[in-house]
Specification:
With 187 residues, this protein is of the alpha/beta class. The chain is built from 7 helices and 4 strands, in the order βαααβαβααβα.
């Protein structure tokens, strides 16, 4: 079996990206050059996908995931994705792209749902460390938290982790323990 996909989902500002960095994240936030976020310049797939990006000015999430799933150069990479998807139609469709790529690749998907107390979520969201493309409006965050349920895979390969009192390192350690134990149990 190929290395897993680790899919970290949670409300904006809960700490997904910060925790994923502790897990040696391959940064899927680099959308300025989405090809460089996935492939090194000397990999054969880099130029092919780069032509698509430059030529059409548009590569979808599904296109990037399909490329990852079928790449020989990236076969031994464990991918860690962060997202904020709801259980609604749009969120479910987005998650389906990750599931499809994992199946194509022959990878198990580990789902991690990060939560934290509302006040802590707002505090984290308001820190100056969040990028300019991320949500900073507490009213919108509260509306999302109250009206949208996070997408859940369910089953034994899903961990729900309340990170209110955890540092990023502690949360990352819990995720690694979960993935390691769950992977061993499924062999």
């Amino acid at each position: 079996m190929a290395p897993p996909f680790i899919y970290i989902n949670g409300y904006p500002g809960v700490g997904k990206y910060t925790i994923a960095q502790e897990l040696l994240l391959l940064d899927n936030h680099q959308l300025i050059d989405p090809v460089a976020a996935v492939y090194e310049r000397d990999m054969p797939e880099y130029q092919d996908l780069r032509k698509t990006v430059v030529g059409e000015q548009n590569v979808s999430r599904k296109g990037i995931l399909d490329s990852i799933a079928t790449s020989d150069s990236l076969r031994d990479v464990t991918w860690i994705f962060t997202d904020s998807q709801s259980s609604g139609e749009v969120g479910s469709a987005a998650v389906a792209d990750y599931i499809h790529a994992a199946r194509t690749r022959g990878s198990q998907v580990f789902s991690v749902i990060l939560t934290c107390e509302e006040a802590e979520n707002i505090r984290r969201m308001r820190t100056g460390q969040r990028g300019r493309t991320k949500l900073h409006d507490a009213d919108i965050l509260l509306m999302i938290r109250r009206t949208e349920d996070l997408y859940r895979f369910g089953g034994k390969a899903e961990l729900e982790l309340d990170v209110t009192l955890f540092s990023p390192v502690e949360a990352a350690r819990k995720i690694v323990e979960f993935v390691t134990q769950t992977a061993v149990q499924s062999i």
